[in-house]
Write a structure and sequence with these properties.
The protein is an all-alpha fold. The protein contains 5 helices and no strands. The protein has helices spanning 2-20, 32-43, 76-85, 100-103, 108-116.
Length: 126
């Protein structure tokens, strides 16, 4: 008798699993975790803040002092005439100028010569 009940129960379970395996109803498509999350978000109430919560955290604003305008020197004319009379100083050249024929190719010419040069052949290691 118990085997007959077990056979009937297994047959009902198989039939139910075949018919409900690919359910597309709206109830089956609900995301329970998302619903719980959204419900908790909607019901969340942040604790009220005290009116003086900012004290000690925010500094009081103090406007910086106004800048002072620059002042012109009293004897501006004499300083300008001294500047005009001064001889300009030039930086001394590091090396004397040489002719290009004696120094060889420089700049772009030497770079192009380097690019056109043959690569050294690798030695065979034994």
């Amino acid at each position: 008798m118990s085997s007959a009940i077990l056979r009937q129960a297994s047959a009902v379970a198989r039939a139910a699993s075949r018919s409900c395996a690919f359910s597309t109803s709206a109830v089956a498509r609900k995301d329970l975790v998302q619903e719980l999350y959204l419900r908790e978000l909607k019901s969340y109430k942040p604790p009220p803040q005290a009116q003086d919560a900012h004290v000690g955290v925010v500094k009081n604003f103090q406007q910086p002092p106004a800048p002072q305008p620059p002042t012109l020197p009293a004897d501006l004319a004499s300083e300008l005439s001294a500047y005009d009379a001064a001889e300009p100083t030039f930086a001394a050249s590091a090396k004397p100028a040489e002719s290009e024929e004696s120094s060889g190719p420089t700049g772009a010419e030497s770079f192009l010569a380097f690019l056109e040069a043959d690569e050294p052949k690798a030695e065979a290691h034994h």
